[in-house]
Amino acid sequence: MLNYALSRLLTFIPTFIGVTLISFSFIRALPGDPIQVMAGERGISDERYAELAKQFGYDRPIYVQFWDYLTGVLQGDLGNSFVTKRPVWDEFFALFPATLELSICAMIFAVALGLPAGVIAAVNRGKFFDRALMSTALVGYSMPIFWWALLLIIVFSGNLQWTPVSGRIDLLYYFPDPTGFMIIDSLASGQKGAFTSAMRHLILPTIVLGTIPLAVIARQTRSAMLEVLGEDYIRTARAKGMSPGRINGIHALRNALIPVITVIGLSVGTLLAGAILTETIFSWPGIGKWMVDSIFRRDYPVVQGGLLLIAVMVMIVNLTVDMLYGVINPKIRKR
Amino acid sequence: MSFNKIMATGLLLSTLGVSAHAQSLVYCSEGSPEGFDPALYTAGTTFDASSHPIYNRLAEFKVGTTETVPALAESWEVSEDGKTVTFKLRKGVKFHSNAQFTPTRDFNADDVIFSFDRQGNAENPYNQVSGGTWEYFGGMSMPDLIESIEKVDDYTVAFKLTRPEAPIIANMAMDFASIVSKEYADAMLEAGTPEMLNQAPIGTGPFAFQAYQKDAVIRYLRNDDYWGDKAKVESLIFAITPDASVRFQKVQAGECHVMAYPNPADVQSMKDDNDIVVMEQEGLNVGYLAYNTQVAPFDNPKVRKALNMAIDKQAIIDVVFQGSGQIAKNPIPPTMWSYNDAIEDDNYDPEAAKAALEAEGVSDLSMKIWAMPVQRPYNPNARRMAELMQEDFSKVGVNVEIVSYEWGEYLERSKAKDRDGAVLLGWTGDNGDPDNFLAVLLGCDGVEKSNRAQWCNEEFDAIIQKAKVLPTQAERAKLYEEAQVIFKDQAPWATIAHSVVYMTMRPEVEGYVVHPLGGHIFNQVGLSQ
């Protein structure tokens, strides 16, 4: 197991270097220059332009800039935002807990509903429930996030008034947020109703962000289960008179989980992409919206630093998924 | 504010329940401020969150007008040669305090000098703090204009200028001229945290900064020591809500009282809703099509005028602005003083346009129209606007090719004197002074810079140069009115539209005034019930 973990970790290094290079070049490959964008219609004199370029450090050759960036990254310094002038690192960690909180909730929502739905559909293959479920999943998968979110807001927040429209908590509550996780901070604050308010604010964004992963997980679970259910050992188990619950729940599901876990791991990328729209609509102060704003403003340090941090997160998740394979299937860790 | 105070406020608010809501005004803002030191930034969203609630300036714009009134300066005097402006400062003005800082003295001349010195003097320890680029200070030519700022006594400051300049008072009312506390700046420098000036702002304004949770909420508390009319609500909360439809839902659900920038498409349903109040006003901006007046046949004013008659502006207002715009006939917006309402627009008349072009011997004309790649209040969809013009021009026999570039490129390339084509662009006013439109956009100094028509008319230029140094607004206004007549006659641009700005709020909001300079100001706003 240790060797397996180490070999997986080693692949981290080239990926990390690649990601650093891509994140650095990506934003520079876009046309447009942050100083011109900042100056806008008002324009800027050549002298002032030169001064600012010097201050931002990109009057220097590109390879010098990359070297500075790389050495900075290795020392844990991602530079300061051109716009807010604050360290990228500080901004990321002020916003990341919000994204993480929402992503975890969305993932729990997707797995908690998607896994059983997929199993039930597989067991009832071809029956009405299976068809209904799979068509719903297809609709869920194809749903434009923006439209879906507005629809839910109009129905549940506007007409029915069951849920708040947007934000993380009712503005009435005001307390320090040491962890940045509203669920934890609201509990810790001891203020009556704060926790409930935070939970209520999570409902719609969780559903919106979790919809696509939910559909993917349900479909993947179904097809993996179907494959396993056709195996000889399942037939044997059935022949031995084992209860269907035990067959499906233990023998089949456990073997079907490998592709499902792969999909869950890959969904983390989808979640981060979905977070951009979800966060914008629900005024959720996370990293998705922060990245988009920075791309429009050509805020190089934020875009390259933010991309790098997000890529590292995805890499960590994938590493965890690889480790989980080993836990579920001993054959993999011995290889 | 200490942790205990924060907890106490929180507890107080939660025990007060609904009544706490009545004392808190919640504004659904459209975006996050870049920071809280207005001199460092240029975005209106940042000014709404910083200069308006937290700070004051020597002079200020009277809310709802572009007129300047005394604020931290009780009065000012301009010397006879126009090159010295002496401000008499208000006494007894208190700065806010926070957990790190409690002021030991009132506002005085040192604060004024520090507020400007840090922007213009590279030796000032704050010049480089927070990556200071001081865009507006430079953009308004302050480094060339201000020779020195002298302290006459604790409550008198003299600005020595390199030339007479009437708009200087309006400049002093701009956001970048907000007065910060020198005492606070010194204390933070000593503590090794100079960036706190930007992150935990201290000002003299009607609201004191309480807390900012990035991209989510900004909180302010009423400044009970305020020198002017105290704010009507106890606390002001900005709920940052980037999506316009969601902002509207929040107003409807009572989660916020006021929202900025509704979707034009939603305005009608807002007006139909009895529980929603919609206010509107022309924005302080203009969208235009600038011909290159140095290239034939566009060097001929009659050709330009003929083309102007070929544009169906009403169709543009309906399609591009979806009603949230108004036809522009002058290069300055109607809310600005000296707006010449007597001027007649070149009305849409394709037949007359065609005849006029023929009379000038122009036939088989092909031209380019540049369409901006970005959305602006003065032009929400430049591509669509260019397409409509293409259609209009084809009716008078002019063939149009539409071109576009990435925004930075667009701004840069459109400055070229030999540019091929007419450019769609616009301008949003900074200080409510006509000079800020007419001189910047149409003066001879602006050629190959912000004057995209490359238009240098001696008569026009002489008038605006003269108007710039006259002491009274009435005298200046007369000259600007004349300048607008020359502009209309010479037609370096086709003036297209001024945007209409809408503000949406709940009926319990009292005293809100739409500000022509574009800011959202809540000092005077209360809540009924």
From TrEMBL, chain A:
Query: Which CDD domains does the record associate with it?
Result: TM_PBP2 (cd06261)
Does Transmembrane count among this protein's keywords?
A: yes
- Subcellular localization(s) per the UniProt record: Cell membrane
InterPro entries xref list: BPD_transp_1_N, MetI-like, MetI-like_sf
Molecular-function annotations in GO: dipeptide transmembrane transporter activity
Where do the ABC transmembrane type-1 domain residues begin and end?
Answer: 96-325
Tell me what topology the record assigns in the membrane: Multi-pass membrane protein
Respond yes or no to whether keyword Transmembrane is given for this record.
Answer: yes
List UniProt keywords, sorted A-Z.
Cell membrane, Membrane, Transmembrane, Transmembrane helix, Transport
Bilayer-crossing regions: 9-30, 92-120, 132-156, 198-218, 256-282, 302-328
**Gene Ontology terms: cellular component:** plasma membrane
The record's annotation in PANTHER family points to: DIPEPTIDE TRANSPORT SYSTEM PERMEASE PROTEIN DPPB-RELATED
What family is reported?
Answer: Belongs to the binding-protein-dependent transport system permease family.
Protein name from the UniProt record: Dipeptide transport system permease protein
> What is the source species?
Litoreibacter halocynthiae
Task: Provide the organism lineage as a comma list.
Answer: Bacteria, Pseudomonadati, Pseudomonadota, Alphaproteobacteria, Rhodobacterales
From TrEMBL, chain B:
Q: Which GO terms describe its cellular component?
A: ATP-binding cassette (ABC) transporter complex; outer membrane-bounded periplasmic space
- Kindly list the places in or outside the cell where this protein is found, as annotated in its UniProt entry: Periplasm
Instruction: Tell me which UniProt keywords the record has, alphabetically.
Output: Signal
Question: The Solute-binding protein family domain covers which part of the protein?
Answer: 68-446
Q: Which GO terms describe its biological process?
A: dipeptide transport
Signal peptide positions are: 1-22
Among InterPro entries, the record links this protein to:
Peptide/Ni-bd, SBP_5, SBP_5_CS, SBP_5_dom
GO MF term list: peptide transmembrane transporter activity
User: Major location, coarse class?
Assistant: periplasm
CDD domains given for it? PBP2_DppA_like (cd08493)
What Pfam families does the annotation carry? Answer: SBP_bac_5
Q: Which family does it belong to?
A: Belongs to the bacterial solute-binding protein 5 family.
Q: What is this protein called?
A: Dipeptide transport system substrate-binding protein
